[in-house]
Design goal:
seven-stranded mixed β-sheet, four-stranded antiparallel β-sheet, mainly beta, 123 residues
Length: 123
């Protein structure tokens, strides 16, 4: 059984930075696409970014140029470096491993989920 554990969330001021981590256990295949999704209060969960096993990445327009996704396959860990944070980035951030994405980068479904880590951007 694959398990994903996120960490690194917290309270940060606008313009600040945070780095989220997601560590997978339970022999998750390294071929899996890994992604970060987020859910703000009162809104549906949305894709933030994903990274394929070969390193190709895809970002939501709202975070492109500010957020950077990476993965360490040896450690089975994925990261999300978030810079120049804005109040609208406030959400619970979830890690997904093994989900399916179509050719345009839209999340189709599936995969394993972590429990989420809260990010609050506020002065």
């Amino acid at each position: 059984q694959v398990q994903l554990v996120e960490s690194g969330g917290g309270l940060v001021q606008p313009g600040g930075s945070l780095r989220l981590s997601c560590t997978a256990s339970g022999n998750m295949p390294t071929s899996y696409v890994m992604g970060w999704h987020r859910q703000a209060p009162g809104k549906t969960r949305e894709l933030v970014a994903y990274i394929r096993s070969g390193g190709r990445t895809k970002y939501a327009d709202s975070v492109a140029g500010r957020f950077f996704i990476s993965r360490d396959r040896g450690e089975n860990t994925m990261y999300l470096q978030m810079n120049n944070l804005k109040s609208e980035d406030t959400a619970v951030y979830y890690c997904n491993g093994g989900g399916m994405y179509n050719a345009t980068g839209t999340y189709i479904g599936g995969g394993y989920w972590g429990q989420g880590t809260q990010v609050i951007v506020s002065s």
